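Quick one, probably user error.
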């Protein structure tokens, strides 16, 4: 630097924030000419940036002097306006050795001073530039597609290319925040899940160790699977306890797992004389016995509760016949052994006082469905027992006398009007099959047009005949479905059983084209009686 014009290290830049109506601002660095200064204004009102024009917007003083100069605005500034005073020396020669003639040291100082000013300003601007590291190739910026709000990023080569704009970045930020929130939710859910379901462990200590290591605290209901005992364990708030169920690998309880002799008593498993291979399933509502024996199996019903009735479900999965009988000395009035063939499903209801029972048997393989009734249907007297068979088409009735002293005639009525009026001409839509002693009795019901078949039995069926009577009546292929079946038991003493036919005409003969009656008798002294109604949909 020259003595007259000292040049100290400086970025040759200054920025001021104006006060209201301020006009004068210092130029703290030396400048040789007014054209070596640029003034930029940033308006406080809207942030607009503008380059001011010398003499139009401002004037300068102090050019070519060592001391600070000044910049004076033509119009006072607004409060908050910013002004940048930037050194920008013009790169030009100030001397010419040939044309200047005699050597002038002052002219040479001015020339070198300008070089120094330009060097400082170049260093300042280079320091603000985007630079590559040492040994790397410089980058080129293509500003063709760089619009407001765009970012810059490095492209495939050494180019700086437009990147996402502010909206894209904000959207990505939103995605990132959502992902972070989802991560927090997932971690919270996992922690809650782990507090409830810990995993598979050999014992309580191993489960506790896992919870401690994971920073989790067990709460009431926390559960893990004990691989040693093959069972579930849960935390009740104070200690680990066995869950009220055990996982059975093959999904069933077999006789081998229970004991050689195991059956059911109410909802408990107790040891009784039951040695056949079978699978036992228990439910709260009743009992289910699924037999898988290849031969006939007999199941015994347990003693009944004095307060609650019982409902049993039987499923025969084997090849043989399943027979259900009362247990030992326990008796069920009117009950007869329930026989369930292969593939059969049965429901058995027994009342709380053990006084009545009924059962329903379904044979899916044959499409049959049997409805069982207690023996008091045949107990004598004139009372009727009504059974709803709405929607069924064919019905079979099997029965046997209570004893040789009470052979019991059997009367069966079918009504298509739900039994509203059984014996009036206005409701002449019923069919009747019944046993009486004479043809004259047939006329006593007001229907003398019924054809009759008098079938005699060897040995008779009178009260003094000494033998009970077993009979089976099947009414089949009815032209309409039945609504109600009614049963009545009476006694008679003369030989013969009178059957009213149900084929063709008003009450056509037996064996009509669509309808008919089958009757089969078997003699024998049978102490108990029962009726089974078979209904086909």
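Nope, works fine. Designed sequence:
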């Amino acid at each position: 630097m020259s003595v007259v014009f000292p040049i100290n290290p400086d970025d040759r830049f200054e920025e001021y924030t104006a006060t209201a109506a301020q006009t004068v601002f210092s130029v703290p660095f030396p400048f040789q000419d007014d054209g070596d200064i640029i003034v930029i204004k940033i308006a406080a009102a809207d942030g607009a940036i503008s380059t001011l024009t010398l003499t139009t917007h401002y004037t300068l003083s102090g050019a070519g002097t060592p001391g600070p100069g000044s910049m004076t605005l033509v119009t006072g500034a607004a409060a908050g306006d910013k002004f940048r005073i930037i050194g920008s020396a013009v790169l030009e020669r100030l001397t010419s050795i040939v044309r200047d003639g005699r050597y002038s040291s002052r002219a040479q100082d001015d020339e070198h001073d300008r070089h120094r000013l330009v060097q400082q300003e170049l260093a300042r601007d280079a320091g603000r530039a985007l630079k590559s590291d040492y040994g790397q190739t410089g980058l080129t910026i293509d500003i063709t597609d760089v619009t407001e709000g765009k970012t810059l990023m490095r492209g495939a080569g050494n180019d700086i290319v437009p990147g996402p704009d502010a909206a894209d970045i904000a959207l990505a930020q939103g995605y990132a925040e959502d992902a972070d929130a989802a991560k927090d939710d997932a971690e919270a859910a996992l922690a809650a899940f782990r507090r409830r379901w810990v995993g598979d462990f050999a014992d309580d200590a191993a489960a506790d160790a896992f919870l401690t290591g994971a920073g989790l605290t067990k709460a009431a209901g926390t559960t893990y699977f004990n691989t040693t005992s093959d069972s579930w364990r849960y935390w009740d708030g104070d200690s680990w306890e066995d869950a009220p169920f055990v996982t059975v690998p093959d999904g069933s309880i077999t006789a081998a797992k229970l004991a050689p002799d195991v059956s059911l008593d109410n909802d408990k498993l107790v040891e009784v004389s039951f040695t056949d291979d079978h699978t036992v399933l228990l439910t709260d509502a009743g009992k289910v016995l699924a037999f898988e024996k290849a031969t006939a199996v007999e199941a015994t019903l347990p003693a009944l509760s004095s307060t609650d009735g019982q409902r049993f479900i039987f499923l025969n999965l084997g090849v043989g016949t399943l027979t259900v009988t009362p247990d030992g000395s326990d008796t069920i009035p009117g009950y007869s052994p329930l026989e369930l063939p292969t593939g059969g499903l049965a429901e058995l209801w027994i009342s709380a006082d053990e006084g009545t029972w009924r059962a329903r048997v379904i044979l899916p393989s044959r499409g049959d469905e049997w409805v069982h009734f207690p023996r008091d249907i045949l107990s004598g007297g004139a009372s009727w027992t009504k059974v709803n068979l709405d929607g069924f088409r064919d019905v079979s009735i099997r029965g046997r006398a209570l004893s040789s002293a009470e052979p019991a005639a059997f009367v069966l009525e079918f009504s298509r009007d739900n039994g509203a009026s059984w014996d009036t001409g206005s409701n002449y839509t019923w069919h009747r099959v019944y046993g009486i002693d004479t043809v004259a009795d047939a006329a006593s019901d007001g229907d003398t047009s019924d054809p009759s078949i008098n079938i005699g039995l060897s040995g008779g069926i009178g009260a003094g005949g000494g033998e009970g009577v077993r009979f089976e009546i099947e009414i089949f292929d009815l032209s309409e479905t039945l609504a109600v079946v009614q049963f009545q038991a009476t006694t008679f003493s003369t030989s013969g059983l009178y059957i009213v036919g149900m084929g063709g005409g008003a009450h056509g003969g037996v064996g009509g084209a669509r309808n008919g009656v089958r009757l089969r008798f078997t003699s024998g002294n049978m102490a108990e009686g029962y009726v089974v109604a078979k209904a086909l949909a």
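The chain has a mean pLDDT of 60.
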